[in-house]
Amino acid sequence: MAKKxxxxxxxxxxxxxxxxxxxxxxxPAKPRVINDRFTDNDDGTISDKExxxxxxxDPSKIPGFDKIMxxxxxxxxxxxxxxxxxxxxxxxxxxxxxxxxxDYSRHEPAWNTDVxxxxxxNWYWTKTECAWNKEAAWCVxxxxxxxxxxxxxxxxxxxxxxxxx
Length: 165
Known about the structure:
Blueprint: H1 7-19, E1 32-33, E2 38-40, E3 45-48, E4 53-56, H2 71-79, H3 95-100, E5 123-130, E6 133-141, E7 147-151, E8 161-163
Antiparallel strand pairs: 1-2, 2-3, 3-4, 4-8, 5-6, 6-7
């Protein structure tokens, strides 16, 4: 749910438009600190201080990411993603990154819905391949946070991430 702008926010926008002689002005979003670890950047992304990543808040709102896909399709979709002002650098998460956003005190979905959205009726791909089978990669359940090895021809969701400082 989008946060309503404050009166101060609206006045700042009006003043910016007046100062720019009526031309459209883009006022950058103000990040909102959720907790010691996560910051909502108000652009569809979440900054994760622990993993030093930028995470898509709700991939189901991005065309193409609202569907399940094979491992290779998910990898390609992440690599070609342009989102949140970043035209490159998006990738599939590692097993550690995807598993770390799970909240094991929750179920269906197994993540904090105040921080993340997304489909919660299937598995999410990670880029971490299984050591004993390069035709499989680790997948994390959206329902309960369980982890399984998934054949790369299976169809799952993906939550793109990008590394950041």
